[in-house]
Design a protein that fits this description.
With about 450 residues, the protein is mainly α. The chain has 19 helices and no strands. About 75% of the residues lie in helices and about 0% in strands.
């Protein structure tokens, strides 16, 4: 199709604001649905899957086996980033986001029908693994497009951190809905929760997918991508090109997430195994605490995104990484009291340092990459962290506790992750309030220049 067809037509201020609102809503609702799907799996893993799909294993071994399936979703995320990053930079943000939503949603819906070990033996775990992999591929392509859909409609460079933080809002919203659904079914199903109650939240996800699909189909493509099409600036192989041009930024983007992602999954997923099996705490208490923590992030994520516009993205992020490194020890000190009030407070407060990083994170990473490679570069950097941080975190936490029988060993692991993120963030360039509409190919030089040699 003639690229002139895509040439960005100047919009009135009113229409531009309307499109920005639509883009933010579409991104936020879409990410909420996809993270609902993803977190639903992580919550049920710690509560049900070890008993349901590995009943003949020792409880601790069964937990490790269940979390191995859980980790498969994280391994798949860079694959999704590579696939959908390519198409996001080739055919556009909107079409790619529709595809990721469908892929993730249908895989989650199918989990509701996976037979248990008692019904088909080990094949239940095999099917679960395949569906988890498909989930991971969908999530891997989702984040980059959602952030760019919002950020590239921003009318002012001075508010980019706040606007880009709204897709991040989908994480606590999805976490809230997932835990709410599990908590509701825990009450309604009672002793039957492990038999059939856990399946209902997965089944209901198909309705959320229909809502998200309707919203996303009614959003225009971003002005940045429309301009790239009109100027014939689309790369033939954007993922290969960004790896060639900005490999350092990809690796730094992955490492900068160590302090954000690894502790997050320890505080919100591993805590169910630790709390129920080790501390003997109520499943519903833990679900309610994670629910409250997610609700708090409704406010703290956009707040810290806004604060990054004022204080600077990199500075805000480093402060959050330092905070989580210290808080890890306080977290386990509070949880190990076995006092329900302290446990509740520890879980709720654990996501405040997370918000300090997650609010500015979207803009910090996405701004690093030049426009025509932004979907590919930001997605790959962001999702590589799932292999080194999010996926292994519950496994490492379980193994550390099995070896040392102390939560403080896990807190030391959180501190190491925090140190890596502080280093990585200090090496990333800070584009707070700078113009990112121009192409910049040599990020480290501080010079913006056009290079059409690789565009088609």
């Amino acid at each position: 199709m003639d690229p002139a067809h895509y040439r960005a037509t100047p919009l009135s201020e009113t229409e531009a604001r309307r499109q920005l609102r639509r883009a933010v809503i579409a991104s936020t609702v879409g990410t909420t649905i996809e993270w609902y799907d993803f977190f639903l799996y992580s919550t049920v893993t710690g509560l049900v899957f070890a008993k349901l799909y590995f009943p003949e294993s020792d409880p601790l071994v069964g937990t490790l086996q269940a979390f191995l399936i859980y980790a498969v979703g994280f391994i798949a995320r860079p694959i999704g980033a590579a696939i959908f990053g390519h198409y996001g930079d080739r055919i556009g943000r909107k079409a790619t986001l529709v595809a990721t939503l469908l892929l993730m949603g249908l895989a989650t819906f199918a989990v509701a029908f996976v037979p248990s070990y008692a019904q088909i033996g080990i094949w239940g775990a095999v099917i679960l693994t395949v569906l988890r992999f498909i989930q991971g591929v969908g999530v891997g392509g989702e984040w980059g497009g959602s952030v760019l859909m919002s950020m590239e409609w921003a009318r002012s460079d001075a508010h980019r951190g706040l606007i880009a933080s709204w897709p991040q809002f989908g994480v606590p919203a999805g976490l809230f809905l997932a835990n709410l659904a599990v908590l509701a079914m825990s009450w309604l199903a009672g002793n039957q929760f492990a038999t059939w109650g856990w399946r209902i939240p997965f089944f209901l996800s198909i309705a959320l997918v229909a809502i998200g699909l309707y919203i996303r189909l009614n959003v225009l493509e971003t002005p940045v991508f429309a301009r790239l099409l009109a100027d014939r600036r689309i790369e033939k192989t954007p993922m290969l090109e960004v790896i060639r041009r900005q490999p350092k930024d990809i690796m730094l983007s992955a490492l900068v997430r160590m302090a954000e992602q690894a502790p997050f999954y320890i505080f919100t997923a591993f805590v169910f195994t630790y709390g129920v099996l080790t501390l003997g705490m109520s499943r519903n208490l833990l679900l309610a605490a994670v629910l409250a923590a997610a609700a708090l992030e409704f406010f703290t994520i956009p707040f810290f995104g806004y604060l990054s516009d004022v204080w600077g993205r990199r500075r805000m992020y480093i402060a959050g990484a330092v905070a989580v490194g210290i808080f890890g020890f306080l977290y386990f000190a509070m949880v190990d009291t076995r006092n329900p009030m302290w446990i509740f407070a520890a879980i709720v407060l654990s996501l405040v340092p997370h918000s300090m990083m997650y609010g500015p994170q979207a803009a910090l990473i996405a701004e690093t990459f030049t426009g025509r490679l932004r979907y590919s570069g930001a997605s790959m950097g962001y999702q590589l962290a799932s292999v080194i941080a999010g996926g292994p975190a519950p496994l490492i936490a379980t193994a550390l506790f099995a070896r040392y029988h102390s939560g403080y060993a896990i807190a030391a692991y959180v501190l190491v992750c925090a140190g890596l993120s502080v280093f990585a963030a200090s090496q990333l360039r800070d584009y707070t309030n700078r113009d990112i509409s121009r192409e910049y190919d040599e990020v480290g030089t501080g010079h913006d220049r056009r290079d059409a040699g690789h565009a088609v």
